[in-house]
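Appendix B.2, paired examples.
Example (i):
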Amino acid sequence: MHGGDFFYQAFVYLSAAVVAVPIAKKLGFGSVLGYLMAGIIIGPFLLGLVGEEGQDVMHFAEFGVVMMLFLVGLEVQPALLWKLRSSILGIGGVQVLTTAGIITLVTVLVSPYPWQTGLAIGLTLALSSTAIVMQTLSEKGLLKTEGGQNAFSVLLFQDIAVIPILAFLPLLAAGETKTDIVSKSGSTWVENMAMIPKTVIILAVITAIIAAGRYLISPAFRLIAQTRLRELFTAAALLLIISITLLMTKVGLSPALGTFLAGVILAQSEYRHELEVDIEPFKGLLLGLFFIAVGASIDFDFIGQNPGLIAALVGGLITIKLIILVIIGRVAGMRLDSNLLFTFALAQGGEFAFVLLSFALQNNVMGADLVDPLIAAVAVSMALTPLLMLFNEKLIQPRFGTTEKPKQEDESIAAKCPVIIAGFGRYGSTIGRFMQANGIQATYLDIDPNNVELLRKMGLKVFYGDASRHSLLATAGAEDARMLIVAVDSPDKGLEIVNTAQKHFPHLKIIARTKSWNDSYMMLDAGVDHVHREYLDGALRMAADALSMMGYRKYPIQRAVKTFRKHDEHFLRELAELHHDHPAFIESIKEKNEDLERMMLDDLENMGKDKDRGWDNTSLKEEFSPMVRQFKSRDKKQSK
């Protein structure tokens, strides 16, 4: 595509998404089915708005799958990954081997093809769609359920299994294999190497990714964050994913697997939330483009010419997978709800089938007469996945079980803290340490990378990010939190955070730090009821110490401080209503100051008559009588 063609294609794809997805969501079908339907409508077999370049678009959009796996890795703590090891290796391994074996047996029994071809078909169709399943589970909030986590484990094993399957397929060739396959699709570093050096290089690359994630990436992001250029941080995040994708491709591994591994390594980094926020829009856009490209690639002409064959292939594939998956779930001890979700989520072909079938065709493992209907069947089964999951949700679950709730994993509870503290510098850290000492856990956000690093070394969970961004607050758990404490240094940034929180998370109780009266007025105007001036407490403590050093007793001083604070807070709210009217505001300040002095001394005089002497031997009346006499004398002179 060049020039105007590029912009035209962009216009078509974006228009289709903007129109189809809201309609699909409104009808309860979910965004994935909306994207697929948009692709079918604009594809070459209906409106014909996009043509053969759809395959090029799909190759570009597959990068969205890579980004999705990176974000999934960021959500998966290493401890959780280790906890899922049995389901990844056990359930995942059993699913792939059993499905491949059954499909191979069926192919050999009902077709004239040899067992080698049947095995190639079985290995290809054993895989499911990572992109569609993960997006749908995430969208419905089912990823953390037992069924969702088991489905994720199987998908992760399948992504790993693609690597040995690609290596194994040429061995099943009926004729000569095409040794220049790699050179056509882009050469790799290990294409002509023996097995042992190839394995060493692959392990070295994986080790390098792990080491870089642990020791190099966080310091690099810290240096980038110090520039305070948000777009540079976003560029660095994209560069990280593209670099890993290229590196994994060069050694013949799955880019999605490599980026997932990098995400797991960075899952405990202080930059995790910011990475999620920066990459999420790109991931969502590219995944949507991928789903549209899948819909547009369905060859309805071929399906129309062979409807019985395609129906039989799709029906057979889904039926075989449903039976195998429900048995595996039963043997694994899943509850009925979990088993149904697990089964209906994975009963389709996967996007890697397109790669494996093309690879099998080039290596003479299958002919075009077999590859074409299989590609059509896989594409149709992927398009049917959202409908299958909707069928399970609306018709099966209500009759045979209840809708499964997300598992309350320890990691999930830890991630959903009741309090978010924005700004963890000198002021916010004191609040955070005090709350933590009293058993209140909080999620901490700060924009200063040096401060984040220092506090992390102290054992506190602090994350880098700009809390005025809606997406970052959402990622930090604002939807489930009860309170937001705004403790940032900049009054303007504090007001931005407040406005964002009130717009998107109106249920949050907000406590805001301010520096001056003007800052307080802005916060009160914004609707924040709980405003705390940074220097008020420190100034009152200093004033109390000054009076103490002048000989006044501590008990009446503390009572005076409490009285002053109460009246000052009352005056703050009264003056906030007038600060836009400058003359009236100045006049009101003079009146309020005089009223404050009068009320203070009246309180002290009255309190001295009725209260005990408290901590010392001097009554409050005796203690403050010189101040009372001085004020009354000044008041008489002014009245004259």
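Example (ii):
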Amino acid sequence: MPLVPSGLRSAAVAPSTFFALVLHLNGLLALELQAPEDSESLASLVYSLAVSLEAVLDAERGLKPSVRKGAVKKTRRTLRTNSTALPAILRLLTAPAAGSSAPSATKLLPLLGLAIDVCLHLRAKGEETKGGPGGVGEGYVAEVKDAVLDCWKAGALNATGTQGAHIWVRSARGSASLNASTSVLTSCRFLLSFRQSSLRMFFQRFLDQAAFDALLAASEKTFVKSPETGFVALSATIPHIAWFSLGPYASTKLLTPILLHAKSPKAEVRAAAVAFFKALVAKLDQDLEAGVQAEAAILDEMLGLLKAGKTANADHRISLYSMIRLFPASPATAAKVVAILPAQIAKETTSEPALVSLLQTLSANLAVTLAANDAIPAAAMTALQKELASPKAATRRAVVVCVGDALWTLGEAPERWTEQADKFAEVAGKTLTDVSLKNVSANALTAAAGVGEGFVAAAVLLGPLSRSKSAVISA
């Protein structure tokens, strides 16, 4: 049986104890590997080292990063020095013998990833590069490729409850219960750990389309039982896909669970969906034509839900706004967003967090559209002008900030100021002067929306608009 019980995670055990265990177990493993590989004690040492290493790498235990790095370096050195034993170690980690007391796959993954990393950096005599195609190290990993994928499914996709969430992701304090005044994307600050990226090199080298199809099939059950675990596991996988395009998957198999769980009543599930979408968009952005087509289809789907009013509640819309904000800034994307979102402002007057999230998304795309010298659709311009003069103080103040931010962004780079920016500024500037500036100057101490909107209006009028070549603005 393992020298360190796999269930030994009591808070009473000092974190430094596990670090000492890692050092001692590496020494014992180095001695053991001098004996025949089929020794019964080899399995015990490997499993004990896996448990101890996982405990050291657990950021929740509070060990300093330098200590965790030291444990990894020591273990890597032991494996590299005894490289001929790597095939046996990989077999033990990926396919424990029936009836053995091996730890769960979740605890085995850190050591497994480290062993694979060492394999893919080996260079035997006669090989020109470390871990090159067809090399001895790649051969070691290729022999257990399917078993590694099975271990990943068991340890990541099928990890449930606190164990799965603890191993693969640790959220910032307070992110599990999203505050009503913050967006899902802002609240979901995932801190990636060594465990999350432990199989990074394996995915880069061996994750082909057939293997990815198998992972997606396995993830379907995970999305039913523990969707946040599934999102986090796949978020650690897709950035490292190198052998095929994610475009065909993004707008179909991957988009379905994202949209489904973006309206979950659980804040942590919505946050995980947004975080996964962020990883997906980042990968699609590297995928040239197929990625652009997939992004366009996804954007149309999300904007269609908003336009048709097919959203469950304000939290659902916050998730959608947050995801739309993640698309790479481009004139084509911005034009679609600017055409749809202004009409949604009137629907968000009962939810300030949703209104703020909407306007943050709109502001950035408004600046991109104007910088590209694209005209703002008449319906969108009318909606913005109406909301700039809204009798509801909170709405008016938020829209003033949105429009002011877009104009200020353009004004900071005069070369981006265009003819369409002048036309937009003519309409917005008149409303800012007649409503916001006048309200505050006449009732500075009693203005319902406070003096903030007046300051924004004055800053825009004296800043970017003062440099406009429009005769209307200059007058």
